[in-house]
Amino acid sequence: MSGAVLLVAAAGVVVVLAFLLLLYIVLPVSSPKTMPLSGAHVVVTGGSSGIGKCVAIECFKQGAFITLIARNECRLLEAKKEIEKFSVNDKQVVHYISLDVSKDAANVERALKQAQEKLGPVDMLVNCAGTSINGKFEDIDISKFEQLMAINYLGSVYPTRAVVTTMKERRRGRIVFVSSQAGQVGLFGYTAYSSTKFALRGLAEALQMEVKPYNIYVTVAYPPDTDTPGFAEESQTKILETKLISETSSVCKPDHVARIIVKDAVQGKFASSVGTDGHMLTILTGGMSPISSLAEALQALIFLGFFRLLALYYIAGFDSIVRRCMAKKEKSEKTD
């Protein structure tokens, strides 16, 4: 009996080693080359504040030309002046466009055509425009579901459609979709928000299959709670259960998140995560997402089972938070 077990174990080791050897042979052939940003044209939607502005600063520090897109012209002008302080040469330009990327695809296409006439073809598009609404499913007005899908999903579809054809013609490009950890795991209070961020991943996976033969690489960023104006605004109305769950992890600085997103994007990495928890979550929820290196394959193979158990522990903790909140509310209602 023990001999049979050892034989099965040995066979398993051989299969794993053969699989890793195959990955080692195949991956270097298909792995992307780093795309330098010096002289590149980078478009950032939602670029007037938060992660978007920090992404623009990081790209500008590396010598890129920047087009910022957002709705508020005053904020755009302020962001432009701030970003220009980080120039590395006197040729760099920061251009901005006041535009709602979630409305009128034809208008978005016209605006980006004008941006390309000013600064040249788009080398990297960072879809960072987004918003969040928090609340219980039945308490959120149905119009808010439509609004979030327009801003968070279509607001990434329209700009991407406007630049992808030229990228394919040039056989060069990077497209970034800024999702969220709430786009990897659904949490209490985020029924409207999570669904839009999950949608970005589906778009990114399908699009990557289509554009990879043209040397275009897609990155999905999954930032955690980040200290941005949008996060501060959301926190003022966040329901108790969601607030308690959010407090189990720390809040990141937007410049730190931006550096990671830019680094992963120029390297052509599909999934971009922040911190140990984010890395664990990305491995755990990887599914059939593309992998960019042998290291990623090894991590998934070695840690997936352990991370799955750890995730169940986290989810159990979140469930406990929700149950305690419900019990507290029921007790309060009975007292009243």
TrEMBL record:
GO CC field: endoplasmic reticulum membrane
The UniProt record lists the keyword Transmembrane: yes
Keywords: Endoplasmic reticulum, Lipid metabolism, Membrane, NADP, Nucleotide-binding, Oxidoreductase, Sphingolipid metabolism, Transmembrane, Transmembrane helix
Superkingdom, taxonomy of origin: Eukaryota
InterPro entries with a match to the protein in the record: KDSR-like (IPR045022), NAD(P)-bd_dom_sf (IPR036291), Sc_DH/Rdtase_CS (IPR020904), SDR_fam (IPR002347)
BP GO annotations: 3-keto-sphinganine metabolic process; sphingolipid biosynthetic process
Molecular function in Gene Ontology: 3-dehydrosphinganine reductase activity; nucleotide binding
Chief location of this protein within or outside the cell: endoplasmic reticulum
Protein name listed in UniProt: 3-dehydrosphinganine reductase
The species this protein was found in: Podarcis lilfordi
Lineage, uppermost ranks: Eukaryota, Metazoa, Chordata, Craniata, Vertebrata
